[in-house]
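Database export, one record per block. Field names are fixed; values are copied verbatim from the stored entry.
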Amino acid sequence: MTIRPAPVAEPVQRLIDELGRLPGIGPKSAQRLTYFLLRVPDEQIQALAEAIQQIKERTTLCSICQNITESDPCNICSHSSRDRSIICIVEDPLDIMALERAKSYQGIYHVLHGLISPMDGVGPGQLKVRELLHRMDSGEVREIILATNPSLEGDATAMYIQRLISPLGIRVTRLARGLPNGSDLEYADEITLSRAVEARQDM
């Protein structure tokens, strides 16, 4: 029996496999990226490798809002012009980027780093909920805006947090439903997000 040689070199296949683990990257995309990287200059590869290494070495979570930052507290939490009486709760840091692009929100944020999803084994204990409740102790917060994605998991997470916060006498609102059902906040355009913030509704 003749043993057929591997169709690609082992380092090439390893990179394809590793890229394929990234969200949104399927096998074909992983192959295209790998062969693109094979053709670029060495200095570009080195810059990419350094950027990947530094993102782990030089970033941390903001001790206040749990956003990814290079300095603690982050630029938003430490900015004197932000309204600290309003906290907008989002699923992940990409949602903050989307809301900041809309330029319609001047409060501060809290990043949950996920949504409640029993099917995926994610419960409230895996989210940054305890850190959120700790922020309520200051007595400074007047309103919580729930900006979780309009999906089953997003709605379940919003309801859970609403039940925790409401007894504290803090106003709890939800982004207006100008956002398409099942879509991610990060993909919404600036006008839609601005209107969703401005027309937020009490829960």
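Remark 1: DSSP finds eight helices and seven strands in the chain.
Remark 2: The first strand starts at residue 60 and ends at 61.
End of record.
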